[in-house]
Amino acid sequence: MTTTRLLIVEDNDDIAQMLEIFFAGRGYEASIAPSGARAMGLGRKIIPSLILLDVGLPDTDGYTLFKEFRAVTRLRYTPIIFVTKRSRREERLAGLELGADDYIHKPFDLEELFLRVQNAINRAARESLADPRTGLPSAIIVRQELALLPEGGARRALKFRLRNLDPFLDRYGLLAVSNVLRHTALLLNGVVDEFGDPEDFLGQSGDDSFSVICAGGKAAEIRRAAVDRFNADVNRHYAMTQATPDGVRVTDAGGHTQLLPIMWLETVELGG
Length: 272
Prior knowledge:
Largest sheet: 5 strands, parallel
Shape: globular
Distance between the termini: 36 Å
Helix content: 40-55%
Strand content: 25-35%
CATH class of the largest domain: Alpha Beta
CATH topology of the largest domain: Alpha-Beta Plaits
Number of strands: 12
CATH architecture of the largest domain: 2-Layer Sandwich
Number of helices: 9
């Protein structure tokens, strides 16, 4: 399976390092943000599967940052667990009333925290809120967002589909496909961040497709940049390759060669 990404928002260096090492030992990839500003930037960049959020931060408080995360469409359905030394009942209730998935106070038991993180991620997957391979909002959420898009409005819906993914699956297997999906999700997320607006939406609409909702004036640039960047490094997904005009020539361990049609990113503007 693909690596699960955590965003740990913690300004205490010792605690942050401890959590990073602990979760790395469990197969997670942790990114550390010591401030609210850094957390918002990283959250939009890495598409975390879950956010561990301290309440006391140098530039803001966790409750305010929680609301800011939820205002970003790409983070609206990401599980968030408050981790804080504040243990008063009123403060716990305040966090849970905001919609946090859990609330655990310091000092905490690492094994208990791990189970709470794992349970929150699994719960989000069961409820079909996030795709477990990419961390993006799932197809159900995509359909809801598209249904809210007014006809003839200023915003546009774009669909990106990975073509020739099936031959790649047959040759390299499910894990490699999951890595391609994750890579494409991060690529699209970076393009939307660079050329779009903070309120733009990105979700996974199918096993081989993604949807973006953006301002109409940004749609063409987002489409162009996404296709150009995907094509520029698509060969990285093929082991021992040689590009030809007809496809990608792959060689297995036994020295046998096979010509695969190369993957490419199809784009369609659905309108709005």
